[in-house]
Design a protein that fits this description.
By secondary structure, the chain is an alpha+beta fold. It has 15 helices and 20 strands. The strands form five sheets. It has a five-stranded mixed beta sheet, covered by helices on one side. Helix 1 crosses helix 7. The chain is elongated, with a radius of gyration of 36 Å.
Length: 480
């Protein structure tokens, strides 16, 4: 939900910089507004001062909200009502308006792009367990003493007719089983067909073309209909052909019905996250692929690998959700994961309809913390660690490589200057400054040092060293 700030920040920038006078740093301003609102570093007064700098009034913001009223829904009026509403509240409330989310439903992208990735084969080879049936075409090849090739369609009764041999029942057999049968049938006519090294006539049988089945894909799918698929098509193939589940359809409970019973349940997440399609079965004539309404669905955003909207099943909680989202990013703050929840009807009071609580994910992932159950509609945000760094010292001024350096337990001034590339030729050696932070009252004081002689004080954490050039220390000369 936090990503919605881009919408409002974009509106502010569009107001501040008309199309005829766009500036190059508009994207930077959007990024700045986003970071400031989310981090809480700016007070309402500072944000309003920023608006004045950009030439944007609060009424301009409200005008944008009026224009977006239909998309904001019933909360638009409440957002526009209060004249004293501070800018940060206005921005954050707009972020939480339902229906404006850039998070994608996990799994939807699999079915959105047209591709031949899931188009099943229409002719051999076939899986070893493929069972022959009416509508299949077989190819029989004889070599050796007899040279011949025959195309053998499987009749409705489930047999093929081999020239000079007669009828051979094949319905329900695999290719390996059929080969065993053909040794008997062909051996009666061709004396060279036998097992072992004495054989002088050899044969091979394969699939020429596959039969096609009529199946049904119904429920919460994009294109529910009757489909004609090949005999090796699976439930996943049928889902792809029908456009996949809608935004209200389930990805975790796709049912394959054969007659009056459910023969398997397909969990598309298993395929997407682990590459396992254990519930995917080959479809038969008349099978029904049914996609029910989705189950419990939650959102996760922030510092996870795959932010998005996920469907949970059974007793899956926060730990399972983090696994579905691909895990956490290295910069995630494991002590601060927030769950924003809509209270159940019986727990709601006037003005109290949502709750927010933090979770220590570090303990949860270690298996020490209690399992965190999630409710439908929960919004989870994984925060990043703070940008501030400890154990640092800074050197600036007349050195070759000024910047921020790591602070060690015993770090002295001259060692730091060496790390910074050493002093420039025009350095003023008589005086440098250490600006030191007092950890008690957080004030700073200046400690003068000399770069001449043996003066080499030990540095504290957060020290800032300033090295001057001769020109900076020389009194300015001028003539009037």
């Amino acid at each position: 939900m936090f990503s919605r700030v881009i919408l409002v920040a974009g509106a502010l920038c569009a107001l501040a910089f008309p199309a005829t006078a766009q500036v190059q740093d508009t994207a930077a301003i959007i990024q700045q507004l986003q970071e400031e609102v989310l981090s809480g570093r700016m007070t309402p007064e500072q944000l309003e001062a920023l608006m004045q700098t950009y030439g944007v009034t609060r009424e301009d913001v409200r005008q944008r909200l009026r224009e977006a009223g239909p998309s904001l829904g019933p909360q638009a009026d409440s957002l526009l009502a209060a004249d004293t509403l501070a800018l940060d509240s206005l921005l954050l409330d707009t972020l939480r308006v339902p229906g404006i989310s850039e998070l994608q439903i996990f799994g939807r992208s699999l079915f959105e792009r047209a591709t031949s990735q899931f188009m099943p084969v229409t002719m051999g080879p076939v899986p070893p367990n493929y069972q022959l049936g009416p509508g299949d075409d077989l190819v029989l090849i004889l070599t050796g003493d007899v040279e011949a090739i025959y195309t053998l369609p499987v009749t409705r009764e489930g047999f093929v007719v081999v020239p000079d041999v007669g009828r051979v029942a094949v319905n329900g057999l695999t290719l390996d089983q059929l080969r065993n049968s053909l040794f008997t049938y062909l051996g009666r006519v061709y004396s060279g067909v036998r097992r072992g090294p004495e054989a002088t006539t050899f044969f091979e049988v394969s699939i020429g073309s596959l039969r096609r089945n009529q199946i049904f894909v119904i429920g919460e799918v994009e294109r529910p209909a009757q489909y004609e698929v090949t005999s090796v098509s699976t439930a996943l193939d049928a889902l792809y052909q029908s456009g996949g589940p809608t935004e209200h359809g389930s990805f975790r409970n796709v049912q394959v019905r054969r007659g009056d019973r459910v023969i398997t349940v397909l969990d598309v997440y298993e395929y997407l996250t682990r590459g396992a399609a254990t519930g995917d079965v080959t479809l038969n004539q008349g099978d029904v692929v049914f996609v029910p309404v989705r189950g419990r669905r939650v959102e996760i955003d922030g510092n996870v690998v795959r932010p998005g909207v996920y469907e949970l099943k059974g007793d899956e909680g926060l730990r399972a959700l983090l696994e579905l989202a691909g895990g956490i990013e290295p910069e995630a703050d494991l002590r601060r994961v927030q769950v924003d929840r809509v209270l159940p009807l019986e727990a709601r009071q006037p003005g109290v309809q949502r709750s927010l609580f933090d979770v220590n994910v570090a303990q949860l992932l270690d298996g020490e913390g209690e399992l965190v159950a999630l409710e439908p509609g929960d919004k989870i945000y994984v925060f990043a660690v703070a940008e501030e760094r400890r154990n640092t010292v800074t050197v600036r001024g007349n050195v070759w490589a000024p910047g921020v350096y790591g602070h060690e337990p015993v770090l002295r001034l001259r060692e730091l200057i060496e790390r910074a590339g050493g002093l420039r030729d025009d350095t003023y050696l008589g005086r440098a400054q250490i600006i030191r932070l007092d950890p008690v009252d957080l004030t700073r004081r200046v400690v003068p040092v000399s770069l001449l002689g043996d003066d080499d004080p030990e540095l504290d954490e957060y020290d800032e060293i300033v090295v001057y050039s001769i020109a900076e220390m020389r009194e300015e000369r001028f003539v009037t």
